[in-house]
Amino acid sequence: MDTVTRLNLDPPESPSLRVAFLSLWFVDMVAATLFFVVPYANELNPITVLFFDYLGFSGVPLAATLYALIIMGIGHILSHPRDIQFIGLIVALYALLVVNNVLLLLSGEPLVAVIGV
Questions:
Q1: Considering the domain boundaries, does residue 71 fall inside one?
Q2: 101 domain residue, yes or no
Q3: Any transmembrane segments, and where (predicted)?
Q4: Rounded distance, CA 73 to CA 8, Å?
């Protein structure tokens, strides 16, 4: 227990950011799972693909859970206000990924093609 105390683990003091992260993470995990079902989209993350190859569909949420644990662990270790900035950056990144993944699943086109960049 002394080791945990010395690491000074404390969650970021923004419950709304934590909820946003977990919500976006869940949608991204579902989208990543669906990428292995639809014929017109592929999961690009090599770790997720490796977990899928070895464990099948259960490997996708396992890989996603490992990502979430790493991100939450980093948020717990960082001091205030860096922890909130880090989680905010991750939420923004996940928001972009989720929008792209959902558009790709619904329309077959990635975000850059839809907005014409």
A1: yes
A2: yes
A3: 20-42, 54-78, 84-106
A4: 11
Per the structure, the complete domain to which residue 47 belongs is given by 13-115
What pTM, to 2 d.p., does this model score? Answer: 0.80
pLDDT at position 117 is 63
Residue 23 within a domain? yes
Q: Give the count of domains, the chain.
A: 1
Q: Please provide residue 19's backbone torsions phi and psi, each rounded to the nearest 5 degrees.
A: -65, -40
Q: How far apart are the two ends of the chain, measured CA to CA in Å?
A: 52
Is residue 5 a part of any domain in this protein?
A: no
Are residues 60 and 33 in contact, defined by beta-carbon separation less than 8 angstroms?
yes
Rounded Cα gap, residues 27 and 30, in angstroms: 5
> pLDDT digit string (tens) for 11-20?
677 788 889 9
- Scanning the structure block, which residue is given the tokens 């017109």? 40
